[in-house]
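Hello support,

Our group uses your service weekly, and this is the first time we've seen a run hang past the timeout. The protein is GMP synthase [glutamine-hydrolyzing]. I'm not sure whether the cause is the sequence or the server load. Input pasted verbatim:
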Amino acid sequence: EWSMAAYRDQKIADIRAQVGDGRVICGLSGGVDSAVAAVLIHEAIGEQLTCVFVDHGLMRSQEADQVVSLFRGHYNIPLVHVRAEELFLSGLAGVSDPEAKRKFIGKTFIEVFEAEAKKIGGADFLAQGTLYPDVIESVSFTGGPSVTIKSHHNVGGLPERMNMQLVEPLRELFKDEVRELGVELGLPPAFVGRHPFPGPGLAIRIPGEVSKEKCDILRKADLIYLEEIRNAGLYDAIWQAFAVLLPVRTVGVMGDARTYDYVCALRAVTSVDGMTADVYPFTSDFLSRVATRIVNEVQGINRVVYDYTSKPPGTIEWE
Ligand code: XMP
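Update from on-call engineer: The timeout came from a worker crash unrelated to the input. Re-ran successfully.
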């Protein structure tokens, strides 16, 4: 009979067989997939694994610290935390095209990762938290000709350049199965249940040019939105929810003063694998509460709108 516990044991055996006494390096993204992959591999080969967390400064509020303390404190897994916010933000200055942002972030991520791998003396294997839908999406976009809608940078390039073999223990799994495996491995359910977060992070939730100031504004709005979603008990019913900071300023009024600030768009969808998605139907009370809190509490935003587009024709992210 199939069970997640048996699957875990099988994967541990597979990883041991593949890796032998080789050394493995794993890039943590801050997300669930790479964390589950890392913990699984750590169970299999212990100290032969080193994790590298390239912190591009484009994470949500407190997220980087949570990942670092989870790995260092809870699991005692060797983790290199590379603080590279300035490198990424300075390189993103003046870049507004979505694919150009992704390319820069992907390339810089690889460079930083490579440099860290060298510092720790290299490795024979590269571990990645690639899921089954990533495998399919990187082959072709379903339901149409083979066109690249968005280049997800977490799959290609690195192993060839670094002359390493891939270890991808989640390749057969869907997101819900990865979560189940994470719980099986003892990861906190709240961590495992976190919504997916794209590799390029907040950079693709700020259409147009990215700056530290905009990232900080967006982090505050996003935190309020997610806090309200959790308080309403809706977090687990939603596949992804996040705020987007639009590159548009509109006129508003606060007290008796005129304001001229950014617009924030809220997105929330249900989905099984991210390939198609439906809009989450919040009540108007809920949306009003979030809009009021964001405009009152976040300096720089004076208007909030809700995105009512399903996928297709929209995509989940705005870029
Ligand atoms: P879209 O916007 O294509 O998103 O409907 C589908 C799923 O993919 C995530 N996404 C990304 N993940 N790098 C990633 O690692 C990316 O460049 C990227 N773009 C979108 C998105 O968050 C959603 O879960």
